[in-house]
């Protein structure tokens, strides 16, 4: 799994289908489309 963080608020989500690529995605916290950047990869990570 690859976890990404929102550049505005730091919210983290799993976007495994887009591994290693920055991308734009709707942020549930900011309630707008923001840039998400890869943070780390791992298995069995829980928040």
Automatic annotation (TrEMBL):
<protein>
    <recommendedName>
        <fullName>FmdB family regulatory protein</fullName>
    </recommendedName>
</protein>
